[in-house]
Amino acid sequence: MTTHDVREHVIGTADALFYGRGIQAVGMDVLKAESGVSLKRLYTLFPSKEAIVLAVLERRHALWSQGLETAIEAASSPRDRLLAVYDYLADWFCIDSFRGCGFINAFGELGAVSPSVADAVRSHKRSFQASLTRLVHDIGGSSELAAQLAILAEGAQTTAAISGTPEAAGQARRAAESLIALSDAGLREALAVTS
Amino acid sequence: MTTHDVREHVIGTADALFYGRGIQAVGMDVLKAESGVSLKRLYTLFPSKEAIVLAVLERRHALWSQGLETAIEAASSPRDRLLAVYDYLADWFCIDSFRGCGFINAFGELGAVSPSVADAVRSHKRSFQASLTRLVHDIGGSSELAAQLAILAEGAQTTAAISGTPEAAGQARRAAESLIALSDAGLREALAVTS
DNA sequence: GGCTGCTGAGAACGTCCGTTCTCAAGGCTG
DNA sequence: CAGCCTTGAGAACGGACGTTCTCAGCAGCC
């Protein structure tokens, strides 16, 4: 068991605990008990609890981005790659332990009190929007469309979390399909006269 | 200064504090200092801090719903009434103290630890979805469209909160206009063949 | 006016948090 | 094998939390 392995183990345990119960609801002694790593060692591995929180967010970002990328690459057409984002969300919402976006949760809990947490959340969301923008540009869509699709994805996450059902993913996906179809067909101007 | 007035004053003060700093970040002594109401009195007015949190959520729901209703009623056509929802969001996002949806924040912070808070958040969101569904039905739209527009509104709130800019409101509004136009024109079938 | 009962303020309480300290055990060096 | 030095565990610490207690002040009544 190398130091690095223990570190990763602690981060993984902390991730599950923080995500499942809320960050402030998990004390260092609980993390000690669940990870089997003594307090002394925890504090030699990390300078503070906040550092653990940041490491957890980093890991969560890496896993999430990697999973998303894998889902995207599995699709064949540019349009399917874009829609794969929502299928990825749908799969995620169905997991038992799903409790919303960990970044949004962390932001609500600590965003006003810890600037570094707020920054980590912001950069995660920026990264997601960048991925989406790239996919949208691949089908010739505008940045505006990318922003709209990102808003749908964000809304699906919070809606699924609060309602406790995964159906928001399908609704967001169908909404995205509509917006993409509109953009594809270049029908926005044509429809504008009817509204 | 009646008991009722003091109660309302405490709830208002607590709302501002909880929303601005996070619920767990505000202790009872801070609430005492900011409201000018002694701890003894606070605990005669409310049985616990959690009761104050619930009262705050109730008040926030009342104010928010009332503001939304006012914004809706000010619009003249059914379509404008529906889009007024997003203009209401836009105005809200521009307020300096905007820090996201207080209910989403509370859910992320306490949803896993306090079932009553989770319930309050769920019923607020259900109420919002019900309002939206009513407005959508008034223009002949489906429940599916209402769900999609709700997701857009949710996404706009978290996006605006995390990004720190109000532009998500406009993006969500334009996305909503697109979805409504598609629904209005009954063009979904026509477009399906092009996708 | 003196006694009584109630309300007020905030000191005090127990608990739990994040963090540090003590000290015992073990491995490497000579 | 003796000495030392690193590392381990978890008891201990200071502070902050939510909640309760004490007691001074002040009505109202005899």
TrEMBL record, chains A, B:
<dbReference type="InterPro" id="IPR011075">
    <property type="entry name" value="TetR_C"/>
</dbReference>
<dbReference type="Pfam" id="PF00440">
    <property type="entry name" value="TetR_N"/>
</dbReference>
<keyword id="KW-0804">Transcription</keyword>
<feature type="DNA-binding region" description="H-T-H motif">
    <location>
        <begin position="27"/>
        <end position="46"/>
    </location>
</feature>
<dbReference type="InterPro" id="IPR001647">
    <property type="entry name" value="HTH_TetR"/>
</dbReference>
<keyword id="KW-0805">Transcription regulation</keyword>
<dbReference type="InterPro" id="IPR009057">
    <property type="entry name" value="Homeodomain-like_sf"/>
</dbReference>
<feature type="domain" description="HTH tetR-type">
    <location>
        <begin position="4"/>
        <end position="64"/>
    </location>
</feature>
<protein>
    <submittedName>
        <fullName>TetR/AcrR family transcriptional regulator</fullName>
    </submittedName>
</protein>
<dbReference type="GO" id="GO:0003677">
    <property type="term" value="F:DNA binding"/>
</dbReference>
<keyword id="KW-0238">DNA-binding</keyword>
<dbReference type="InterPro" id="IPR036271">
    <property type="entry name" value="Tet_transcr_reg_TetR-rel_C_sf"/>
</dbReference>
<dbReference type="Pfam" id="PF16925">
    <property type="entry name" value="TetR_C_13"/>
</dbReference>
